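Section 5.1 Outputs to date
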Amino acid sequence: MSQAVAVPEDMEQVYAYPRSLTQANSHYCPGCVHGIVHRLVAEVIDELGIREKTIGVAPVGCAVLVYNYINTDFVEAAHGRAPAMATGIKRVSPDKIVFTYQGDGDLAAIGTAEIIHAANRGERITTVFINNAIYGMTGGQMAPTTLEGMITTSTPGGRDHLLAGYPMRMSEILAQTAGAVYVAREAALDLAGIRRTKRAIKRAFLAQIHGLGFASVEVLATCPTNWGLDPWAAMQWAKENLGAFYPLDTFKITDEVKALPV
């Protein structure tokens, strides 16, 4: 935990280390945006004053060690099963704030059924979904979100829809479910996008606090290591390519969620 620093009377404090963010050394690759999103989640938890009653659910993938960085209670789920575990926790302890933190290889592949049915049931949980269009932890294989023509270790000639199908736009799919009250896609690829991402995450948590239903925020991200790019080039590639196929938008927002002060 960070120590409070006294601010001189003639100065205005504009930055403080989030109480809900630990000071563990990052294990992520240079240029990975997981750390940025961890901080945004921690800031939102602090601002909403929910740290002592929040439970996170981490599955398998690069985000598996998220519990080292966000200072709340955490449990670990089997690959793809975070929404199912979060559902059980929330139903047993409805007073808790429960969120999942998932990558695209997890949420959009082995966990497709879990996330869609959790959304359709209107489970009162929050999902933060990191989409870098590739399997990161296991070696850079094709994921359901991998773009057509994109080279991965399992598609060395580029993804071919005739063999592997088309990339899946998960936010658009989740927005069609009756139980979802808020579904948005943002990108943590520049300062303006990071600000919008935080606002979306806060709205998703508020939807749960007010008991309105399922809420999800997809965040376009980078994977410089498996893309074979340096961090800056990866950011630019993501903006030009991921951003073109996965448009940033709010795909569903109910009137009740829209009315919440963010």
